[in-house]
Amino acid sequence: MKLRLKELCKERGITLTDLAARVGINKVTIYYYVSGRSFPTKRNLAMMAMALNVDVSELFAPQNAPIAPVEDVVVEEEVAPSFVALVSYKDVNYRFDDIESLKLRLSEWEQENNG
Questions:
Q1: In total, how many domains does the chain have?
Q2: Does residue 4 fall inside a structural domain?
Q3: What is the per-residue pLDDT across 54-87, written as a single tens digit (0 to 9) for each?
Q4: pTM of the full structure
């Protein structure tokens, strides 16, 4: 399902980087949403709709709209992410700044699920 983030930002005179800052997520994540490589959580959809002053349903393009090819997505400045991973687990987003904390949390979740 294609999101209209690029179009909505342009209409409001803001960049995708501005939107990412308003939502509190990394701009690379926004570019993944635009290219269709990733899909936002319910929380991020709600936050983006709020930041753009639209209903969540207005974030979505019509059903058969093509997803922008990755090469059409332009990153405004090339910056390496300052984190190892962003993980959504049980509708909560987690940011891991190092591999050890990620491994530890994954182990905890595995134990939790195996009871």
A1: 2
A2: yes
A3: 888 888 866 454 545 544 444 444 444 455 566 7
A4: 0.54
